[in-house]
Amino acid sequence: MTDSTESPDLSRQSGLTRLKEGTYGGLFAACAAITLLTTAAIFVTLLSDAVVFFRATPIPEFLTGTNWSPNPAGGGQAFGIVPLLIGTITVTVTAAFISLPIGTLTAIYLSEYATPNARSILKPLLEILAGVPTVVYGYFALVYITPALKATLFPEMSTFNALSASIMVGIMTIPMVSSISEDAMSAVPDELRQAGYGLGATKFEVSTGIVVPASISGIASSYILAVSRAIGETMIVVVAMGAQARMPAVREAAFGIPFINPADVLLESGMTITVAMVQITGGDLTGGTLPYNSMFALGLALFVVTLVMNVISDIIAERYREEY
Amino acid sequence: MATDNANADGFGEVSRVRGIAFEYLSLGASVFGLVALGVLLVYVAIDAFDLSNASPEWLLTYFVTLVVPFLAFCLYSADDPAVTRRALGALGGGLVAVAVVFTAIESLLVPIPRLNWQLAYLFVVAAPVAAYLTYVGSNGRPGAVGFGLLGRLVGGAALGLAVGTLFLVFDSLVWFLAYTLGVLPAVGLYAYGRVREASRARTAALPVGFLGLVAAVVLRDVIPTYPSDLLIYLWTIAVPIAVAGGLVVADRRGRTVAAVAAGLPLAVATAGGFWATGAGLPAPTVLLVLVTTGVPTAVYVSRVVDVGEGVVGLALPFLIAGGVVVGALVVEAWGVPAPDPWLDAGFVTEAPSRTPANAGLYPAIVGSVIIIALVAVLSFLLGVGTSVFLEEYTPGTGPIGTLTRILQVNIANLAAVPSVVYGLLGLGLFANLLGLGIGTAVTAALTLSLLILPITIISAQEAIRSVPDDLRRGSDAMGATRWQTTKNVVLPEAMPGILTGTILALGRAIGETAPLIMIGAATTVFNPPSSLFSRFSAMPMQIYTWAGFPQADFRYGVVAAGVITLLIILVGMNGTAILLRNRAERGS
User: Fold this and answer.
1) PANTHER family per the record (chain A) (predicted)?
2) CA of A68, closest CA in chain B: separation in Å?
3) What is the DSSP string of B403-436?
């Protein structure tokens, strides 16, 4: 090996150099491989236990069962996912009622109305909403939102209920909608806006009639991401919604049309898929029992649903994006 | 935007109402979430500090001794008559407005629970004005100096406490041997190689250091006697920090000043350590905190005095400390009833308890610090490695280009996997299959590292991508290899961005609860973890547990204090990250 100070090694081919280069390249590749391994590990871990679970509880029974009681006191376990789905859908839909309109309006304001100064202050502040730990949001819902709603709007509300949890989930997901939608709206070229003004449109008409339709794919993909985040949200619902897997009472309206009173679901305690998983961890964690395996089956369902939603969101953003 | 078209038949007449209504609707939507969060934070702060029981006299005392001098300092630093006028106008006008509006709501509509107009004024007017003035004041030179000093004092203390905490689980004797046999010779060789231009000495540094570490682990049980913990910390941490500080000063001011700037805090810290031994305090922690605050402070002060601008700013910490002391004295002498905050010294130094008054967060804080330290190391190394591989080592086309794209999509999808699923991964893989144990610190650290890895990678990639290509080509033209270019050009340029992203990701990790529940972290532990494989609890876990207690004192007192502690730590971490980014942006 030549000493670099005396005669420079222009070929870069000395043994030590090559060894060093190869070692570092290999190390970096190994780091990158870990991300692939993580995905594979999630799949394998979830599947291996879920398969054991599905041998004991057939998939149709799991998907259509209306009773979820993994650790009943008197025996007679039942693993029906329907009550959990009702809980998850309740929270997701209610949260979407808050986060989607507010997030979209926020995006329109930031991209169309706000001065650059106001935008530079508002945007980082909005990110704070997504940065607060979710257990803190859950605590807020339980200790401040529920008593406030109880004192004003819904006196019959129970301490643990779906509504306050959903409100907090909605607020938490606002920045997810607003930041992605705002990116899409800012990408709409100014020529389109100027053309609108040239035709005599007002700022309101340009915003809602030109900018929003032109960025609809970005807005749609932001909606899907926000909803998928709400589905996977755990701590807010665990703290504020309680843990009762219930089927809501089906009432009869005029002419015998069955319906479900939203208040029965929203103002009462309920259980989402994520809550069910957390509740099982209160028992045995070393494995081998049916409740332990059911946790992985629920995890698999959650993982697949959120993964599919993300892929769909990607496809929408890619395929329906207007190229300018 | 109505036109001025004055046609008689109304051509071009447009109603402005709809547009204006829409603009304010969207503005309202933008601030809705922030206002909601702000109100909740105000209530949680009132509960944590028991402010609803604070008498108006108590509030007035501290407002005069603490808030007013601070605002005056900011105004002096900003040195702008317009700002002064605006701030005084807001403070005065706000006083009237809040008093009137608050009284009107209370008497006409509904009583507002646990809030009086003085508190409302404090949160709605005084706090935003103080935030604005802090921002404006920090742009002036005295303010910049004052906040810089304050940041070093607080940050140094936090760092010292964190390092002290880490030694609860890491064996200080192994560290002593590893430092003496491995780190010191390696650094020496490297420095020698740098100074004498001997590349072989530099190359040898890494293997020598590694051998030293191995030797340390082997010799740990062979060597019979060791120096005391205090001496070990002095030798392995305090002296190196002081030397590093001295070198920084020596670059600018010459050896005498450097020796004073480094020696003085070291001497104070050593004296403090031995005094603490006598006083029954944890001497090593006292030593560490004194060194990590003292040395950076001394270096900073020497630089400020050297520059000679805004030296007055150095008085800011004294102003604040003086305000607290004077306020306490006045309250004592006046006999004003003071609030009894839940969040006090006892809360952060004591173990959890069944009785709300004795409940503390100490073991949970220790657990969080240990996990976050491990997560920081793991996710930083993995994140930087992956992003360097993706950005520097792979071409955009060909089979490897396809692989890169697959990796990229995979990382984006991993970022969207619910955290509770990562918890299942940790439980199934790390805890049960690999046998690292249910609810141990190692399992938690590995799980959380994987959880934040995608975020770390994505931000590190952005930082690396923003390094101009000219720099890489320049380095290539000098005959540098790929690794040399990465190490000498790309990583130093991208480091502030990478660190910012990593710290923000760590902020996410410190608040995660669901994965910790899934891997079986303890809901309550009464002693801090003594090793990496012992059961632990973390701050969010403890908050979750307490939130489930039905007693009002827990719900509205202890948990609020825990929430505020967690949020203060989060704000500190994110603030550091933002400062890093701003400084890097200003530098480039």
Assistant:
1) PHOSPHATE TRANSPORT SYSTEM PERMEASE (PTHR42727:SF1), PHOSPHATE TRANSPORT SYSTEM PERMEASE PROTEIN (PTHR42727)
2) 19
3) HHHHHHHHHHHHHTS-HHHHHHHIIIIIIIIS--
pLDDT reported for residue B2: 47
> Which of A4, A35, A275 would you mutate first to test chain B, the one with the most B CBs within 10 A?
A35
A229 CB near a chain B CB, below 8 Å?
yes
Please report the pLDDT score of residue A8 as a whole number. Answer: 53
**Which residues from chain B sit within 8 angstroms of residue A196, using beta carbons?**
none
Q: Do A307 and B417 touch (CB under 8 A)?
A: yes
- Torsional sign, CA B13, B15, B16, B20: negative
**CATH match of A80-275 with 1.10.3720.10:** yes
- Per cent of chain B over pLDDT 70 is 97
B395 touches chain A (CB under 8 A): no
Mean pLDDT, to the nearest integer, of B388-397?
Answer: 84
Pick the residue from chain B with its C-alpha nearest to A123.
B30
Planar angle of CA B148, B161, B188, nearest 5 degrees: 80
Contact of B463 with B383, CB cutoff 8 Å: no
Query: CB B517 to CB A278 under 8 A?
Result: yes
pLDDT in tens, B412-454: 889 889 999 999 999 989 888 888 888 888 999 999 999 999 9
Structure tokens at B483: 């690794």
* Whether pLDDT at B7 is above 70: no
DSSP A79: E
B20, B404, B424, B434: which to substitute to probe chain A, counting the most A Cβ within 10 Å? B424
pLDDT of residue B3: 46
Contact between B14 and A30 using a beta-carbon 8 Å cutoff: no
Q: Is there a contact between A133 and B407 if contact means CB atoms under 8 Å apart?
A: no
How far apart (Å, rounded) are the C-alpha atoms in residues B293 and B33? 38
Verify whether the Cβ–Cβ distance A5 to B197 is below 8 Å.
yes
The interface predicted TM-score of the complex, written ipTM, equals 0.89
**Mutation target vs B (from A7, A17, A28; most B CBs, 10 A cutoff):** A28
Residue with tokens 């540098």: B480
The nearest alpha carbon in chain A to B484 belongs to A21
Integer Cα distance of A100 and B578 in angstroms: 29
Q: Please give the pLDDT value at position B5.
A: 47
pLDDT in tens, B468-511: 999 999 998 988 888 889 888 999 889 988 998 999 899 999 99
Q: Which tokens go with B579?
A: 């400062």
Q: Could A175 and B517 be called an inter-chain contact, meaning their C-beta atoms sit closer than 8 Å? A: no
CB contact under 8 A, A274 and B418: yes
CB-facing half-sphere around the CA of A273: CA atoms within 13 A: 28
The DSSP-derived string for A138-178 is HHHIIIIIHHHHHHHT-TT--SS-HHHHHHHHHHHHHHHHH
Spans of all domains in chain A? 16-56, 80-275
Q: Is B44 on the interface with A (CB under 8 A)?
A: yes
* Nearest one of B104, B119, B96 to B46, comparing CA atoms: B119
Stretch A65-75: mean pLDDT: 77
Q: Are B104 and B34 in contact (CB under 8 A)?
A: no
Angstrom distance (rounded) from CA A92 to CA A182: 22
pLDDT tens digits along A134-162: 999 999 999 999 988 888 888 888 888 88
Q: How do residues A151-210 score in pLDDT, each as one tens digit?
A: 888 888 888 888 999 999 999 999 999 999 999 999 899 999 999 999 988 899 999 999
Q: Which residues in chain B have Cβ-Cβ distances shorter than 8 Å to A143?
A: 547, 555-556, 559
- Residue B208 makes CB contacts below 8 A (sequence gap 6+) with B182, B185, B186, B189
Q: Which fold has domain B356-467+494-587?
A: MetI-like fold (1.10.3720)
Chain B CA closest to residue A228: B416
User: B399: buried, middle or exposed (CB in 10 Å: 19+, 13-18, 0-12)?
Assistant: exposed
